[in-house]
Request: fold
Amino acid sequence: MPIQYLPREKVFRDPVHNYIHVRHQVILDLINTPEFQRLRRIKQLGVAATVFQGAEHTRFTHSLGVYEITRQICDNFATNYPTQTAGDGLWDDAERLVALCAALLHDIGHGAYSHTFEHIFGTDHEAITRQIVTDPSTNVCRILATVAPGFPAKVASVIAHTYPNPQVVQMISSQIDADRMDYLLRDAYNTGTKYGEFDLTRILRVMRPYAGGIGFDANGMHAVEDYIVSRFQMYQQIYFHPVSRGMEMILTHLLQRAKVLYTAGKFDAKFAPRLLIPFFENDFTLRDYLRLDDGVLNTYFTYWLDYPDPVLADLADRFLSRRPLKSVTFNQATAGLLPEMRELVRQAGFDPTYYTAENDSFDLPYDQYDPSAANPKTQIEIIQADGTLEELSTQSRLVAAISGQSVGDKRFYFPKVMLDRDRDAQNARVYRAFQDHLLNGALIRL
Reply:
């Protein structure tokens, strides 16, 4: 079936890319599906808006942004590196539509408060993304099938990283791809963090296809370095922010407590979260999954403010009223103190199951390719003047300095009241004993 174009190009105004351009009828049809529109109701950064008040942007806006960057990459490749003969390693523009659809739909399987929800209920947003794309019952699949009967499976294989053309896969998923470039710029814009910005225009200009994927001209290496440093700083300052993680711990324990009550048959029918029950019972359908979003969960949390179980009601209030758990860092040498710290929290009147937590967040700013790794990364290739490829960290001292260096920390979370000495005379001794193990935001041995 011939590709259908809109009679006039459709544009979406966007704070990051100015305009997002749509020419294909299938792209506009996908955007208008209920499955894709649901992404308007799921925040891109989850609970981070409780720390960075501008971070109200959604998976919807991010997905459009990834599509737009991919469209620009395709335009660059089609203009400057069009294939001349089969197997020459240049860009075959017949791959454009599958790349654009995969870019647009790469996050469509994200759920309500996605990463926290996945942890509690064992869902997998990537697997659900592929299911939405290939299940004949979805509007998305039906629209994709109008391109060709096997087209939904093609798009799903790009998302699964099994598509035979590595150029298409690396546009969407690699260490410098449309997904990462959009979320870094978009998250930096919405959180007000200027150090998350980098020169997207220059990076796109120096991108080049080759037979094994996508590389970058050597004269554009500094723009790639800038991207790597921006990513490093965003993870340190935004994605691993200790207060955001403290709110995630509250959300995690809130959902865990609701699940425990329901599983024990103790959930008050008046407060039953009907749309969550299939997940409590671990027997949910795709339709059940697509009915959830951040707003649905927040509505249940609001109901639970009046729930007779004091732990559930308190956790709901802490989440809705932004009262995160506090935290200190710990390491291998001080991890042995955690049972004692939990016991002090219990003595202060809090169930440590729900009012303490351990959380670790680590990321590699850049990682060289290691075929023996569980999930080997696609390395960034710098294309030399003679056409040879050199891995980025062998060309950049800056990247070499941080390559393979894991950044992040381990934190122990607890109620803020544990930091008070004089608020509660009855528990003053417990508070002092707890605080004796804290110094400069870290757990210490006496």
